[in-house]
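Objective 1b of the project was to move from sequence-level analysis to a structural picture of ligand recognition. The entry below was assembled by the postdoctoral researcher (A.K.) and checked by the PI before modelling. It contains the amino acid sequence of the target and the SMILES of the bound compound, NAP.
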Amino acid sequence: MAAGGKKLRNRMADDAMISTMKTDMGGSGSWESGYALITGASSGIGEAFARALARRGQALILSARSEEKLHSLATELRQGGCEVEVCAADLAHADGAFSLRRRVEEKGWGVSLLINNAGFGSGGDFASLALEDELAMIQLNISSLVELTHWQLQRLRANGGNGQGAGRSGGSQPRGAIINVASVAGFQPVPYMATYASTKAFVLNFSWALWRENRDEGVHVMALCPGTTRTNFFQRAGIQERHFFSLTPEAVVDLCLRGLKRQQPVVITGWANRLSVASQRLARRNWVVNAAAGFVREATLDKTAGVK
Ligand SMILES: NC(=O)c1ccc[n+]([C@@H]2O[C@H](COP(=O)([O-])OP(=O)(O)OC[C@H]3O[C@@H](n4cnc5c(N)ncnc54)[C@H](OP(=O)(O)O)[C@@H]3O)[C@@H](O)[C@H]2O)c1
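Corresponding predicted holo structure:
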């Protein structure tokens, strides 16, 4: 506890120092005018964000653990004329987000779009899953996301959240934006993916609340809620991928960026996922939880993990 308090105080002292440093956000512009910092950019949805934003000419900071993959993606995107920086970080580590934001500050890279995309899930009976993996998931999917969001909101608002209502529909484009990648799993409890779905419920509600808090500050916060998307996610989670109604990461990103342009607080990707979320609201909660239990248990690859 005492060590934790000291660590926090040291971080706050570092924050105070950092906040006096010059940043290059500029006095005007929109979320497209500075860097887009993308976590989890080495594969899947994060990589698709990097490619889509590079095509639009936005400068990028790519982050994930796999530094080699990030460098090879950066090299490819630079050939298309895009300005790309690489900043590897392990965000499942308690100091990961701090080390990432400190490096970004030290370089003076002004971030106008933060995409908190890095995340993973695990499938199986909670009591049989490795606790350290579940805690690492909470660190990555929640704590690091909260830390980066807090840092970025303070920076964007200090750089002149304009208080003119940018962010309301019909207003001008916000000067900064934060996309937090949640999931349709965040709309309900999901047995055999209990921790994962709960982290995404947090991300969804947290982002939606911050959308309202920042609506008049010129900063748009949104939650992206993909359904099944064809990435490495399922393999990593130990869950068999279902291809019904699944989307490519490129399609997910395209829908998200359209939603960002319209300043939507929440984007649920695809009509089948929107229908599923809407119907869950009408059905009895226990029925929804039981149905999810059957579906996910069936898809869990490690049948030895105490799944009954
Ligand atoms: N695929 C789906 O069906 C689906 C549905 C809903 C929501 N999502 C969400 O979408 C987001 C992206 O996942 P994806 O589907 O694109 O899966 P993915 O291909 O497995 O990508 C996950 C990304 O997160 C990074 N990452 C994992 N652990 C990390 C760590 N400890 N520190 C930093 N970065 C880490 C990975 O890079 P490194 O391994 O190089 O670190 C990778 O770039 C996740 O938040 C996921 O929960 C996915």
